[in-house]
Amino acid sequence: MTYTVTPNCDNCKYTDCVEVCPVEAFHEGPTMLYINPETCIDCNACVEECPVEAIYADVDVPEKWASYTALNEEKCEEYPIIEEAKDPLPTAKTLEELQAAEGWNWTVVADSLFWTAASDWAADLGCSAIIRDQHSFKTLHMNKL
Description:
Elements: E1 3-5, H1 16-20, E2 26-28, E3 33-35, H2 45-49, E4 55-57, H3 68-78, H4 95-101, E5 104-111, H5 119-125, E6 129-132, E7 138-144
Antiparallel strand pairs: 1-4, 2-3, 5-7, 6-7
């Protein structure tokens, strides 16, 4: 297993993840970072640090971004290792801005270590689904805008 940087990093390039990586697995491209699968030790430290939730375990990458696992590997051969944090790009967006651009409004409704997808519970709450956010382990209420 390895970890994959996905499009939420593109045009943002937050480097909080670089600071916690114990093996210098990150490579810096012009608009985003990439994780070298040969260097990554699967420690998971970077996932919690990414402010835009751009990093996933390769087995958890959303289907729409599945090509990014191979892209990370390819781009690591092209771009240099980044060893220290830098300022994000001027075009960097917050997680809320990225979610709004996708047309979703997220509201935390309960802290939980458990995931539920009970459609009747979702309907009772007046939302389309209840999910556990993999990064913060909170149950979220989502409404399409």
